[in-house]
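queue> pop job 88
queue> type: inverse folding (structure -> sequence)
queue> payload:
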């Protein structure tokens, strides 16, 4: 660390130059030309084509062919590629290509899966059978409970294709998380037997935080949640059984998700379960 560098440019000087250039450039897409945040040239070339808007739009479409010159946009979802292993980034890229370039176009324009062309390709809204926005207020009473008679009268809820596929992939992610950790558990177990590096040896000098520091807040939060679910039933609208199921899911997936995050710098989001239950 303190060795004299023999390069024509030191690491400190390179960092300073990169910092200044990054700071100067951010004023261009962030203030002067916000359009550079997302350039959808397909929409510019075909401004009146609905199909091209669905293909090239980053807001209401597949964002195919679009690019960005804003670093904050690059790191907004997957994080910085500078600190993420290449295999993890490549894995995400392969999945993205399969989904956006193959699965969605075929399902929407070729197969018309579940009458997908009747609804927007990329939308998180709820629709009725005619393609109009679903009126949630007609099927929910004053206590925010569903009225099944009104629901049957108004009809089933329909989702846009991308939104529906995201649900499917969300549940697939949950199953794949357990499968991945199961197959690669040997490597995780061997990490305890391998020789510690210098950083691990240095940290061994410090005492670990007692486990009861974590157990007490966990038990207290679960107890308070259980009281709320049993005393304020109408306000919370969650049975105590539902709370136990939620806690069980958290206990099961916390370690596998943490394992994947530690090895890939990728956070697996599993919002499908609560969203599915809310619908």
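queue> result:
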């Amino acid at each position: 660390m303190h060795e004299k560098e023999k390069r024509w440019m030191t690491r400190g000087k390179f960092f300073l130059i990169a910092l200044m250039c990054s700071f100067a450039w951010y004023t261009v897409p962030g203030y002067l030309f916000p359009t550079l945040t997302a350039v959808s040239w397909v929409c510019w070339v075909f401004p009146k084509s609905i199909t091209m808007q669905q293909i090239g739009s980053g807001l209401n479409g597949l964002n195919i062919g679009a690019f960005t010159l804003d670093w904050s946009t690059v790191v907004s979802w997957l994080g910085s590629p500078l600190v993420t292993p290449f295999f993890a980034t490549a894995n995400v890229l392969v999945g993205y290509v399969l989904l956006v370039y193959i699965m969605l176009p075929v399902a929407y324009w070729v197969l018309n899966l579940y009458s997908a062309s009747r609804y927007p390709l990329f939308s998180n809204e709820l629709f009725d059978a005619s393609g109009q926005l679903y009126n949630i207020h007609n099927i929910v009473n004053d206590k925010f409970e569903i009225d099944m008679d009104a629901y049957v009268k108004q009809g089933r809820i329909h989702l846009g294709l991308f939104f529906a596929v995201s649900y499917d992939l969300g549940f697939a992610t949950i199953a794949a998380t357990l499968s991945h950790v199961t197959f690669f558990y040997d490597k995780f177990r061997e990490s305890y037997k391998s020789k510690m590096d210098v950083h691990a040896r240095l940290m061994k000098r410090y005492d670990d935080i007692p486990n009861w520091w974590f157990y007490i807040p966990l038990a207290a939060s679960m107890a308070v949640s259980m009281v709320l679910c049993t005393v304020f039933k109408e306000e919370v609208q969650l049975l105590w059984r539902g709370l136990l199921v939620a806690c069980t899911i958290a206990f099961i997936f916390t370690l596998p998700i943490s394992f994947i995050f530690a090895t890939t710098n990728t956070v697996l989001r599993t919002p499908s379960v609560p969203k599915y239950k809310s619908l």
